[in-house]
Amino acid sequence: MKPLSRSNFLLGAVSGLAVVANTDTIFSQALAQTALPGLPGGSDRVLVVINFQGGNDGLNTVVPYGLPDYYRYRPSLGVPQNDVLRIDDTVGLNPVLAPFKKMYDAGNVAIVQGVGYPDPDHSHFRSTEIWQTAQPKGYESTGWLGRYLDEAALPKTNLFNAVAISNVVPEMLLSRTTDVPAIDALRSYGLASDKSAANKEAFHEFVRDTTVPFRSPFLAQVAEIEDHAQRGAQELPKLVAGYQTQATYPATALGRSLALAAQIVGSKLGTRVLYVAHGSFDTHVTQKQTQERLLTDFANSIAAFYADLAAHGNDKRVLTMTFSEFGRRVPENASRGTDHGEAAPVFLIGGGVKGGMYGTHPDLGRLNMGNLAFTTDFRNVYATVLERWLGRPSTPIVGAGYPMLPSLIA
């Protein structure tokens, strides 16, 4: 019987404690660079991933207001030209993203257009799995950032090498050797067993008892993971207690999540990856109200996050990447919404990016059965983040043949 891997074991708890390259893109000629394990400040860098759950509509986020086909396909949902926060003569941002546009104008936002993958799947579950494992053609038991955690050989004594600020550990952080805590809210972070004094004491006795016959090959590993989870629940509130927030966050789930992310970053716990969820963006009906509310929340929360980071001198240490499992179909539907689509933009945010527009906006005149045809493979984005930001070779993690996007990260 083979050993149990972390990727196949999740420990339930209160508040979620749980323990084909596109060679025709403009990036295909970019020279593959060597891995950069010695990046200046690389050991102090943090990646924050924000998941726009449910499939965010990219066309009403980065709006192609200069393309007449956009308004032909979206007679009621199209963002009026005069309202668009213009970037150039073709595209701009949704007007509710004004705080985010200020960050773009300051050079702290890179927008990668038309991101997707070959033969896309329109199922939320399968497409989310593809994005999180970086494996479109098969099934993988670890996530792409879980494999990074394994490859990076981070200190085993650190209980917070990665943290999911959510009620479950996302698939992208499942690894073979690294336990990742999921923390929905700091005040209620802890093991379910600890809510009962009797259960808590029974667990402590179990961990201390060296005479327990470990006949199961999994029992010792389960005990280790539980021990890590319990110690983490005890230590984290103390480790972040001295942090003073220097920004006003929205009183929303995303605002609270990013406030906690700033605490973890500022407390210098050695955390390399943080995961945050936002949504749902599954806007089949009356899209305008739902998407604008979520984008407003995102713009205000991310602006507060980077203001807070900057006040502590951490804004250049933190790269934030957004993703969504797919975009939406180009034509609006009869319910003034949009259905499951394909390609969408990815945002890279922070003091370490070279801001601007990257890639080619999908051609509205050449649709793939009503969907945008992707122009940038998401694995090119992942390879860039891995090699240029986290300082690890990308091939063992996302596969060969995905050159980095040139000039995206400083």
Query: Looking at CATH, which topology would you report?
Result: Alkaline Phosphatase, subunit A
Helical residue percent band: 25-40%
Pattern of helices and strands: EEHEEHEHHEHHHEHEEEEHH
Indicate the CATH class: Alpha Beta
Spans of at least 5 consecutive residues whose pLDDT stays below 50 are 1-40
What oligomeric state do these chains adopt? single chain
Please count the beta strands (DSSP E, at least 2 residues each).
11
Q: How do you describe this structure in short?
A:
The chain contains ten helices and eleven strands. It has helices spanning 68-73, 98-105, 124-133, 144-152, 197-208, 219-239, 253-266, 287-311, 378-389, 395-398; strands at residues 46-52, 62-63, 85-86, 92-93, 109-116, 162-165, 273-278, 318-323, 344-349, 356-358, 376-377.
Molecular structure report:
With 410 residues, the chain is α/β, with parallel strands linked by helices. The chain has a single domain, classed as Alkaline Phosphatase, subunit A (3-Layer(aba) Sandwich). It contains ten helices and eleven strands. The strands form two sheets. Strands 1, 5, 6, 7, 8, 9, 10 and 11 form an eight-stranded mixed beta sheet that branches. A hairpin with a 5-residue loop joins strand 3 (85-86) and strand 4 (92-93). The N and C termini lie far apart (46 Å).
